[in-house]
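Researcher: I'd like a structural prediction for the single chain below. Treat it as a standalone chain; there are no partners to consider.
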Amino acid sequence: MKLQLKSRYLELLIAAAFVVLLIYVVSVTLQVAQGISQTIDPPRYTVRLQVLNGCGVPRLAARMADELSGYTDEDLRISVVDTDNFESLEVDSSFVISREDDRTVAVLLARKLGLQAQDVSYAPLDNNYRHVSVTLVVGQDYERLQLQSPTNTEN
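Model: Treating it as a single chain, here is the predicted structure.
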C-alpha cells in the first residue's frame, strides 16, 4: 500500500512538472508571435579605443574612458581597452589616431566627439596585442569633448 502511495505521488509530481513546462513553452511562443521579442541591429562599427592623457590632469584618461565605455548608437559601439598617459603631457588640442589603414571608424569617432576629420591621423602600433583600432589623445581642451546625441548608451 505504501509503495502504491509513493508511486501515485511521483506520477502527480511528473504531471505537475509537465504542466509547468507546457505553460512556459506556450508563454514564450505567444511572446514571439505577438512581437514582444525583437531583433536589434548591431552598430555598423565597433571601435576598440585607447584613451591617452595628453594634458597631465590627474586620472583624466580613466574619467574619459568611463564616460566613453559602452557607448552605443546605430553607427558606433565603443569598447575602451586601454588607458595611459601620452608621451607628452602638454597637448593643447585633443586628436584621434587611427591604428588601422581605413580611417573611417576614427573619423566617425572624432566627429561624435566634436572633433574634425583633420584631427585624425594614422599611425599603426607595433605590438598591438590589445587590438586597438583607435587612440584618443586628450588635450587641454578636454572639456569640449562630448559625445554627440547618442541613440542609446549602455554602461
